[in-house]
Design brief:
alpha+beta; two-stranded antiparallel ribbon; 28% strand; rod-shaped
Length: 61
Amino acid sequence: MTLRDPFDFFPPKFDATSRTGFQVENVSEYSPDEAFAQAFPRAERYNGWPMLVLLELRHAD
């Protein structure tokens, strides 16, 4: 499956941001790394797996 738009994978309810006057500016994923796993050993099995997704929204004026 090839995505034409990076936001194609979001469910339809995600489109609520545009209906409320916001637009998505950026989507970021973060995964634990070795340093994080050393500080928190239980996170070691999640190295390389996205655990945090941040959406940057901007009010469309």
